[in-house]
Amino acid sequence: MSSDLTFIGLFLQASFIVQLVMLLLLGVSIASWTFIFQRSKALSGARSEMRQFEDKFWSGADLNRLYQELSARNNLTGMSSIFCAGFKEFVRLRKSNTSTNGVVDGTYRAMRVTMSRQIDELESRLPFLATAGSISPYIGLFGTVWGIMNAFIALGEVQQATLAMVAPGIAEALIATAIGLFAAIPAVIAYNRFSHQVEKLENNYGNFMEEFSAILHRQAMASQAQQPQA
């Protein structure tokens, strides 16, 4: 009895459970690659935005003018949104005659909230990649175990077993493990790489917040010193 040992042939010959496992893993793989391309584009855009903003910010541009320029845009992201949130809160608190420490603390909290939102956005879909990388091999192994179990059950019903009889059943079962690894390996690599990139961006955002807070603190102190004493 001849068997089609191509991928499609082995898939069609597999049991329903093994076919279901294969289809599930293929779906996970397609979703993983979709999210990999999305996150790669988003993180690349975040790094580009950060470099462009830092060039403008550290070029000595007037903060009020820079704020007006950025706030006129729609959908601010990354370091630009952190700067705008902090400067807006700084101006509001300074107009309310808040103490210098209160102005700086309030400004830092506003930037911290905005940074947390940006990091949450950058980390979206990463939990899926982590889950796919963790469970896909086990799902594939389940399909393999189920397929080999059925193959040996079928062998028990014949008088004489040969390699030609057992090979197709084992091959179709092992495909499930192969697909599981195919889905897991890129997901794990992408998750580790993207997590490292997000961590670096978070550190850069945090460093900017500290430096910007120091600048605003000096401005607040200078403004307070210029006010006439009662």
Automatic annotation (TrEMBL):
Residue span, MotA/TolQ/ExbB proton channel domain: 80-205
Entries under InterPro entries matching the protein: ExbB/TolQ_transport, MotA_ExbB_proton_chnl, Tol-Pal_TolQ
Transmembrane regions: 12-37, 126-149, 169-191
A GO term from the CC aspect: plasma membrane
Membrane topology, as annotated: Multi-pass membrane protein
Subunit structure: The Tol-Pal system is composed of five core proteins: the inner membrane proteins TolA, TolQ and TolR, the periplasmic protein TolB and the outer membrane protein Pal. They form a network linking the inner and outer membranes and the peptidoglycan layer.
Family: Belongs to the ExbB/TolQ family.
Protein purpose: Part of the Tol-Pal system, which plays a role in outer membrane invagination during cell division and is important for maintaining outer membrane integrity.
Protein known as: Tol-Pal system protein TolQ
Species annotation: Alteromonas profundi
The gene coding this protein: tolQ
